[in-house]
């Protein structure tokens, strides 16, 4: 099973994890690493390294982060260079994290899997537009 580490600013990681567990149940080989304002980047890096080591069984680890360029992303990206088979994803949303949680077992290659998760996440970004349908009967020409 591919391991999962979720990190981000404030309660981002624990909030998404709460939603994943509500939908898919408690997850194995899954760690949350928070980055609150009292934690230094060095302390975050240490916490991330420990979490990666705990969830890594040799099949790979996906590290989900919130903002590209933010401290959780940068620390995760730097750490990924010291591990093999680690993928760092950013811009995490519930759809991609849920899919990762449900589909990470079996014969899954971590790099290809991470690419498909990015596509899933991107496909979920949209806006709602209310479209009122009218029928031709509404325009019968009598002005009423």
What are the defining features of this structure?
about 140 residues; globular; about 45% helix
Structure report:
It is a single chain. Helix 1 packs across helix 4 and helix 4 runs antiparallel to helix 5. By secondary structure, the protein is an alpha/beta fold. Strand 1, helix 1 and strand 2 form a beta-alpha-beta unit. The chain has 5 helices and 4 strands, in the order E-H-E-H-E-H-E-H-H. Strands 2-1-3-4 form a 4-stranded parallel sheet, sandwiched between helices. The mean pLDDT is 93. The termini are far apart.
- Outline the biggest β-sheet: 4 strands, parallel
Backbone shape: globular
| Total strands | 4
Kindly report the average pLDDT value: 93
Strand fraction: 5-15%
Low-confidence stretches: none
- H/E element sequence: EHEHEHEHH
Estimate the helix proportion, in percent. 40-55%
What is the CA-atom radius of gyration, in angstroms?
A: 20 Å
Structural class estimated from helices and strands: alpha/beta
Number of helices: 5
Strand order, biggest sheet?
A: 2-1-3-4
Task: Indicate the topology.
Blueprint: E1 3-9, H1 12-24, E2 30-35, H2 41-55, E3 61-64, H3 71-80, E4 86-89, H4 94-103, H5 110-123
Parallel strand pairs: 1-2, 1-3, 3-4
Helix pairs in contact: 1-4, 2-3, 4-5
Task: Please sum up the structure shown.
By secondary structure, the protein is an alpha/beta fold.
């Amino acid at each position: 099973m591919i391991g999962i580490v979720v990190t981000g600013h404030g309660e981002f990681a624990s909030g998404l994890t709460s939603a994943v567990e509500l939908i898919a149940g408690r997850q194995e080989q899954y760690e949350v690493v928070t980055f609150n304002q009292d934690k230094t980047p060095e302390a975050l890096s240490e916490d991330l390294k420990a979490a990666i080591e705990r969830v890594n069984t040799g099949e790979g680890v996906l590290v989900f982060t919130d903002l590209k360029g933010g401290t959780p992303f940068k620390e995760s990206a730097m750490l990924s260079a010291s591990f093999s088979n680690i993928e760092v994803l950013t811009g995490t949303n519930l759809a991609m994290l849920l899919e990762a949680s449900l589909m990470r077992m079996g014969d899954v290659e971590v790099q290809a899997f991470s690419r498909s998760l990015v596509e899933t996440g991107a496909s979920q970004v949209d806006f709602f537009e209310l479209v009122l349908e009218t029928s031709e009967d509404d325009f019968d020409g009598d002005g009423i």
